[in-house]
Amino acid sequence: MTKIHVSTTINGDAHEFLCAPDETLLDVLRNRLGLTGAKEGCGTGDCGACSVTVNGRLVCSCLVLGAEAEGAEIATIEGMADGDDLHPLQRHFIDGAALQCGVCTPGILVAAKALLEKNPDPTDEELRYWLAGNLCRCTGYDKIIRAVQAAAAEMRGA
Amino acid sequence: MSLDEYRKREFKQVGTRVRRPDGVDKVTGRAMYGADATAPGMLWGRILRSPHAHARIRSIDVSAALALKGVKAVVTAEDFGVPEDDFTRDVQDNCMARGRALYDGHAVAAVAAVDQATARAALKLIKVDYEILPHVTDVDAAMQPGAPVVQEGRVQENVPKGFSDNVTAHFEFGHGDLDAGFAKADKIVERSFKTAATHQGYIEPHACLASVTSDGKADLWCCTQGHFYVRTLCAGILGMEASQLRVTASEIGGGFGGKTTVFIEPVALMLSKKAGRPVKLVMSRDEVFRATGPTVSSSSDIKIGMTKDGRITAAEATLRYQGGAFPCGTTEFGTQAAFAAYDLDAVRTYGWSVMTNRPKEAAYRAPGAPVAIYAVESVVDELCQHFGLDPLDVRLKNAARKGTKSSYGPTFPDIGLVATLEAARAHPHYKAPLGPNQGRGLSCGFWFNFGGNTCVSLNVNTDGTVGITEGNPDIGGSRASISLMAAEELGIPYDNIRTIVADTSSLGYNDVTDGSRVTFAVGLATIKAARDAVRKMCARAAKIWGIDEEAVQWKDGAAVPAGPNAGKFPPMTLAEIAAVSAETGGPIAGHYEVNADGAGVSFGVHLCDVEVDRETGATKVLRYTVFQDAGKAVHPDYVEGQMQGGAVQGIGWALNEEYIYGEDGRLQNPTFLDYRVPVASDLPMIETVILEIPNPGHPYGVRGVGETGIVPPLAALSNAVSHAIGLRMSELPMSPPRILKALGGS
Q: Which CDD domains match (chain A) (predicted)?
């Protein structure tokens, strides 16, 4: 199968890659670009472990084709911290023990950040419905909800 | 190990909520899980699976697949030998069907190719000639004489005649005179229950990277709860010596018991051996559901007699568990656990292990206990309801305590059940008002906990920091707890310690991360290794001071003279001793090896409030509180995390999760869309109350906390729903269609 040449921006850096027409963005990130922070939990858009943003929109990268990244701005978990400075969400996840195995964590952090950009002061219910597409099997979500709210409060300067 | 390990003490670091050492890696995407590793020249493996529930494999033609450009190896059962012992043979046969496919999803062949697309294409070129055989997936049907037999010749001697050969084992526990006990009862309730099989549902599918070289050495990277056990199984299956197979555990994306065995690792090793290149093999979610360990499904009969003032006079349980296409290891645990929470004069439990054409069950958090205790706690609740008695008072009246002869044999030492029940009764949740269509339920839970083989090395670095090498994959923050215990014992800051999980070449054998054993057993070994290092550091100080070793003791992170007679020397800190270790005898390290006994049993009590929508049959969990005895909570955040996570898995089991099989014996819902685990919007906050009744078998009093939390939710939810709708529910999950059916029939 002839491959497609794609030029894109990932976490602010220019990238070029070749991918098959049926290759997912998740496979491109993980297997061609070495960005393994996004995880494949299901491959069918049900678990959210592969969450990234494309042009600011939260997507499951297993449901996006690599070729669709042409000209787009993509953000992954690898770009969330500013060098050594963790994003408040990342910090509060560690401080609040909001992860156990941690495999859903990159997707949940990307999803939570996308929410707080739209809605800096979500109710618990809004947050729970926003994260309903991100499965966590370890925590029961309790400490995740608390950590996101703590980060949101800090980001609001509350 | 004796039961007098525990010494009361004030803790300086244990019990604090420190940051976990793998936190930054895990929030930045740097942590390396099973599917995240690559190797030079790596190939991609993929497995072909049976679409039939039961079929004889007449032939497999792989020639077209092998001829496809880019395919480097094809593997079938013919490439493996036939292990002599039943256990290893079952594990191998579950990884690759030999002669017969025993369930929908059973592996029949595998390929390794230059990329995933080629591997996928190659699978389509493999021609398997199946002769479809009759199948059975229901536990009760599989027990009947004349049922399709899954495997011949697996029946243990103590199984009575008159059943299908699918019934492989029978267990019986208990004591006392049941007839006399039931004769004393004012009311006897007998009820039957069914529970569906559920999956552990870890978010990370099984994944591994195998590299076998032509000189017979091999490296295996995989997500597992126990890489030493993976080595044992794979070396047995591949006919390798343990020393030649090095297994490294990746970070693990959840396991809950489901990653305590192998499914793909021997296949990846064989593919690598045949191809002469490293092979990465990653399961899809469909494969995880169809071919890895779900839990048992069950059918049970419970009979309990009670006096009108709430004393249980006799109790009997018959539990039938199907564990898939191989003999089931879980039935015995359930049979033992069923009545563990009660102090009973007359009790008997019977267990039956049954094979069906389903995937081989794997451990799932307190394996066997949730479905047994669900049935028992439902009947206890029904009796309380009948007499109008308070369900917590009745449980307190009958609660197992220190000195109780348990229903499965042993006499309990210090246990925390009464304290958890009293904490539940004192909590505001228990008295909070309820609205229409709402109900409150509660249940006790129990797990045995485990110790096991453990080996820890503690290295004192010359800069005064400490490295700990242990051998149990960290599934929920255990490295933090282990570092905390070492910090406590050594008297140095937590941040000066780094704990790593080492590969199989670096330590003696460590049992799997299971049985809630790691914080207990690895913690115990770490404390003992630290004491070993302390002894050596005291000896170095004695040498420097020119006094006897016995005249030196360890206090607040430093060697000090034991008393005024020992001489007058300023304290030497760990860092000062370490800095001059080259002049006093070389590197300093502590070690400890043990097959740990004394893991204290763990009890919990859950309270939950639900509201049932009578139009849709949907149940909303309104409030949930977990009370559990942790012995000593080393890192309270992660103890709470275990309690919350276990509770929510149990909520899923009670309300929605279910393996659904069609008439054709195929799994109908192998996706997270159709197999519905709880999502954030389904749940309230999960309140937690940690009780600390020290385990006499651990120096700090620690008990395992990982498993007990999944046990009570099944009955707590069922009792709550039963109260909300005014009808006793007796089947799980209580999905909306089942609740509507129950309401329609009323």
A: fer2 (cd00207)
